[in-house]
Specification:
The strands form 4 sheets. The protein has a 6-stranded mixed sheet, with helices on one face. The chain contains 10 helices and 12 strands. It is of the alpha+beta class.
């Protein structure tokens, strides 16, 4: 097994820049101040990640894979010095700090879903320790995966609450790590929107797995419970109905399109990666709804095979991803209801699968290194 394969980590946040930019222009300094500081910090962090990538790739974790997570939670103390002070280690008693406990539990729920549903041992499938820092900066309106660990802000209390509250937000960010160790999708344009969508898909599945929900019982919302009281919205995004998650005077209206007829072309947000992800998000929801049952089982398995199967290029477009999902469904389930559900879902959102020249989708086995 080659454990030296490298990847290029990206800086991925749960709150899109266009949302923070809207808040940063508000007349109320209590709203604009935290948003501006968050935007400034995120810009610096992206630069750090680019510089780190230019200096050389990061190596994989080489520890032995285990069926148990190795979690460590740190308190950043509202500073920009990661990881901060260690406050809870694996197996330690719960903390008096609810943010610490939520982060710890969510890391565990993410680890368990990937292990039990897909046989994957942590983010890299090699038992990567899961580290997280809470109470990052003051009034920081974001959470992110920086290529090495999770980081959570407390929110400003006016628009956003504590970022450890929604399980799917944490699952979303950790899935960026899974993507970086597998398909390593470029974080721009359609490949970047796919990167974001994959994180939404598995973030939602992690929440559904923890709750034992079927596809028809799930809310298909990302970030429900994160918006503060008084904000006109239910979540950050809706996979079932993109564009309907919020419509608020301070946040603006959810800009996500639900199909290619409304695809948004913009130079902002790396080509609208947080916006156009609504299209593949809805394709997954439609697939899961058509198949029924627990979405992590068949629909999730198809998307997992697609992500880890080795058939996606880093610059994959929607049509490429659609083609591989169809091939993955056929390879695993044959020419049946599952394959037809995938094809119908992409047709509904206006994506025509590209020609796929593989005989099937090779599946990454537990413990097998995924070359990128």
């Amino acid at each position: 097994m080659d454990t030296s394969a490298a990847f290029t980590p990206v800086f991925c946040t749960i709150i899109p820049p266009h949302v923070l930019d809207k808040l940063a222009r508000h007349d109320d300094a209590a709203l604009s101040g935290p948003a501006r500081r968050t935007l400034e910090h995120d810009a610096r962090e992206r630069t750090r990640r680019h510089l780190a990538a230019a200096l050389g790739p990061t190596l994989r974790h080489t520890g032995a894979a285990s069926d148990k997570p190795q979690r460590t939670i740190y308190d950043a103390g509202h500073q920009d010095n990661l990881p901060g002070s260690k406050v809870r280690a694996e197996g330690a008693d719960p903390s008096a700090d609810a943010s610490v406990n939520r982060a710890y539990d969510a890391l565990g729920a993410t680890f368990e879903t990937y292990l039990k549903a897909y046989g994957r041992h942590s983010i890299d499938d090699q038992g990567l320790p899961l580290n997280a820092s809470v109470h990052y900066l003051k009034d920081y309106n974001n959470a992110f995966w920086n290529g090495e660990q999770m980081v959570f802000g407390d929110g400003d209390g006016r628009i956003f609450l504590d970022f450890t509250l929604p399980l799917d937000v944490i699952g979303h960010e950790l899935t960026h790590g899974v993507t970086q160790y597998t398909a390593n999708l470029d974080y721009q344009g359609q490949s970047g929107a796919l990167n974001e969508s994959v994180s939404d898909v598995f973030g939602s599945l992690i929440k559904q797995y923890a709750a034992g929900q079927t596809a028809d019982q799930a809310d298909w919302l990302i970030g429900a419970g994160l918006l503060a009281p008084g904000v006109h919205g239910v979540a950050l995004r809706s996979m079932k109905a993109p564009g309907t998650a919020y419509d608020d005077p301070q946040l603006g209206k959810d800009p996500q399109p639900a199909d290619m007829a409304h695809y948004v072309r913009t130079p902002q947000d790396n080509g609208g990666v947080h916006i156009n992800s609504g299209i593949p998000n809805r394709a997954f929801y439609l697939t899961a709804a058509a198949i029924g049952g627990h979405a992590w089982e068949k629909a999730g398995q198809i998307w997992y095979d697609t992500l880890t199967g080795g058939s996606l290029s880093a610059g994959a477009q929607f049509a490429d991803f659609a083609a591989v999902t169809v091939a993955a469904a056929t390879a695993r389930y044959g020419e049946g209801d599952e394959s037809r559900a995938v094809q119908a879902a992409w047709q509904e959102v206006g994506v025509k699968p590209a020609a796929h020249h593989g005989a099937g989708v090779p599946r990454q086995q537990p413990g097998q290194t995924q070359e990128v």
